[in-house]
Design brief:
- The protein is an alpha/beta fold and about 500 residues long.
- Helices cover about 35% and strands about 20% of the residues.
- It has 2 domains: about 140 residues, NAD(P)-binding Rossmann-like Domain (Rossmann fold, 3-Layer(aba) Sandwich); about 280 residues, Dihydrodipicolinate Reductase, domain 2 (2-Layer Sandwich), CATH 3.30.360.
- The strands form 3 sheets. The chain has a 9-stranded mixed beta sheet with strand order 16-15-14-13-7-12-11-8-17, sandwiched between helices.
- The structure holds 6-O-phosphono-beta-D-glucopyranose.
- The site of 6-O-phosphono-beta-D-glucopyranose has 4 residues, from loops.
Amino acid sequence: MESQQKSASFDFIIFGATGDLTTRKLLPALFYRYIDKQISDNTRIIGAARSPLSIEYFRQRAKDALHQFIREPDRTVHHIDKFIKLIYYVSLNGAEAESNWSSLSTLLNDDKQNPIRIFYFATSPKLYGDICDNLSEKKLITDTTRVVLEKPIGTSLETAQEINKRVGKHFPENRIFRIDHYLGKETVQNIIALRFANPVFERLWNSDAIDYIQITAAETVGIGNRGGYYDGAGALRDMVQNHLLQVLCMVAMDPPISLNEEDLRNEKLKVLRSLKPMTPEDVKHDTVRGQYCSGSHNGEKIPSYLEDLKKSHSTTETYVAIKALINTSRWSGVPFYLRTGKRLAEKTSEVVIQFKPSTWSLFPTSPQPNRLHIRIQPDEGVSLSLQVKDPSKSHTSLRNTFIDIDFSPAFHIRYPDAYEGLLMDVVKGDPLLFIRCDEVEAAWRWIEPILNNWSKNNPPLCYYKSGTWGPKEAQELLAKDNHFWHEDMF
Ligand code: BG6
């Protein structure tokens, strides 16, 4: 959904500029678009954070980050040195009206061209409302100013509504960009192409042909140095409320009447609103929450969550599996199994569409049902399992095989990081791949009963060894339906 565009100039102000997201994702993403000549030399990237740093010091940090987080062939000194000159820094607490706002105002008002202004909030969501009030009071919001809100938008429906209300007081909805980087992934966008440009799939994309669907976002990493945030959030808020539900929307939505941002988002919203509400019984039977304990990966010992957190007690989940149902005629009775976890056996995000078996068989053994894998990352691609005649055996013997496409070698392209395209969409003012206010609220409305039930009834936390595929209870969740996580099928 990205188009080659001519180079743009803008002011990009990051609140929370000393945090992980800026160094790992935002600066590298902007750098790549700069070397692709989509960002002009008049652009300014202004870091804002509380630490009293000089511009030189912040530039050096940025340089170090680029050396660390961009691929070696792209680390040319010439490009890095040129890019670094776009970077500025102001020491400012965006949530405080009395902070050093004059240095930001002076810098911004210095440019008489009045370029597009983008405020990126990479801070705790608790601060979004206050920062907006201050931006408004300091008269820093121009007619072309856009605001980007990192997830999670709040920690509950009520806090999300409050954020939407407070940010909405200063910005119209079409200038609020709620980012979910999963929607920036090429392979998540490709779900739309795969479904709606291939009638062979779309005609089978329903409960007549599909048995069940799995959506997995598995990580091998732990919580790193984000324990402070993560322990208060947990996997349900961190991954399911946003990324997994957005992928589910792309898989489950009806065809939008156009690829216009409102039409697409209306269809996603319909999916979120059609999710069967989770009753206390459903939460008990259809959700699993887990936490990693120590284990090993490739022969190396891996610490437990509590060791990573440096605490002796926490009931925060680092793993979630949920069976979700969608109340529409297309999906009636088709379970959508969602799971995500840290310190799992592999880093992989994927969607598995398990088709129904045929009701009769011409062959002595029943053919295995077809299965479509949409690999979101890594090894972006698609594979479809097929039954063929086993060439080494008699004419009645079948063999399971795959049609498998790896996109990167097939198209000879570098798979860009999701943030690259999304940041340029903000510059273009294109909200198609961002979450609308009502979508965020609908997602919280479905998640909240699970959260509330977990905190009220404190169901057992299922421990799993780091480096495995999660707790056995997650396998049992599917086994009850006679289904399996796809890696258990081999
Ligand atoms: C972020 C979560 O939104 O997504 C992190 O806060 C998680 O906890 C990350 O590690 C995963 O993103 P990706 O693109 O590596 O799957």
